[in-house]
Amino acid sequence: MTDTEVYSIRNDFPILGTEVNGRPLVYLDSGATSQNPVSVMEAEQEFYEQRNAAVHRGAHTLAVDATDAYEDARATVAGFIGARADEIVWTSNATEGINLVAYAMSNASLGRGGEAARRFALGPGDSIVVTEMEHHANLIPWQELAARTGAELRFVPIDDDGVLRLETAREVIDPRTRIVAFSHASNVLGTINPVSELVRLARAVGALTLLDACQSVPHLPVDVKALDVDFLVFSGHKMLGPTGIGALYGRAELLNSMPPFLTGGSMITTVTMERAEYLQAPNRFEAGTQRISQAVALGAAARYLGETGMQRVEDWELRLGERLVAGLGEIEGIRVLGPAAGLPRIGLAAFDVDGVHAHDVGQFLDARGIAVRVGHHCAQPLHRRLGLTATTRASTYLYNTTDEVDAFLDAVSGIRTFFGATR
């Protein structure tokens, strides 16, 4: 991809042509929420205008059309990550997907699901392993699971550069470990973690693996079979899709053995006043009225990214990320978190400005039309490990240009002077 092509791509995103505080919008917050191309917005609108009906319930034409659109979207999103359609469970977001797995394991620990679910049960003496760089969404559900079951929550630490200490991982992941949950790419550090090595360590002791792919599925080519993980989660709103929709990938044999998390209509086969029997996955995990229009729109987002080419997206963001990190590194008083320039990372950079609070940095940039994220980015333990309470994060996507990165760097270079923080 080139800047010329990216400028053409930007025509698909109406919001990028707006102004903020009298300046052209420079949107560098896609790590939080990406923008939507026209095709995604039209897909959801078209569903409501022409196919709106309950799915998997009605026999009339509109209901059949709605069900077809809903399941076509599932097949599209499954294909986007190399999965089978019956291995994709629709969720509200990645957070719900992680909670689904954690609560299913909790239910199994209570004896729900019978013999097939026994492999998911935990108790005292077992351990759950996460990493020190996790988003709260991939930490708190496991804290709660440990509290409910008596299992021990352990973590793999990072070094000062934000890289996992694999020598410690080989000690932390042991025969007591039942599941290893970790991020593919850090939403703060930009670090791309060694999935194959962590999966190998988990496999060696018979542990399950769950990959938080919120910052990888939108930005890198992802093939779940090649990664060899048991579960994987991602959110639609970070990959050009709408809010309110995400997905959990799980190996079919695992999903069909797990007890459900939410129960009610649409996920059952037979119900009496005393008991119920559940459908096979993915339906057993989609109780109630489904996220129909959002799923259809997410399917459109996956098609848009697929047509653009995920390898091209990765290459472009790698270029932007290198420009971000190198440029920030040249500005006095700036500390960039994560791998140094030249090392693998996704196209984002979180940084600390000496003498200026992150929220002041964000307001300074916003006044110049530049949208970034400030705070702890839902990763307080990581920030605490690095001796910080908050940072500023700039994150790129396929619609950002090198000119925008340069405008951001130019603005950052004036922050410490503006706040009188220079010495």
From TrEMBL:
User: Does the record's keyword annotation contain Cell division?
Assistant: no
What InterPro entries does this protein's entry cite? Aminotrans_V_dom (IPR000192), Aminotrans_V_PyrdxlP_BS (IPR020578), Cys_dSase_SufS (IPR010970), PyrdxlP-dep_Trfase (IPR015424), PyrdxlP-dep_Trfase_major (IPR015421), PyrdxlP-dep_Trfase_small (IPR015422)
Q: Which reaction does it catalyse?
A: (sulfur carrier)-H + L-cysteine = (sulfur carrier)-SH + L-alanine
- Of which family is this protein a member? Belongs to the class-V pyridoxal-phosphate-dependent aminotransferase family. Csd subfamily.
Query: SUPFAM superfamilies, alphabetically?
Result: PLP-dependent transferases
Q: What is this protein called?
A: Cysteine desulfurase
The question of whether Transferase is a record keyword is answered with: yes
UniProt KW keywords: Pyridoxal phosphate, Transferase
Any one biological process term the GO annotation gives: cysteine metabolic process
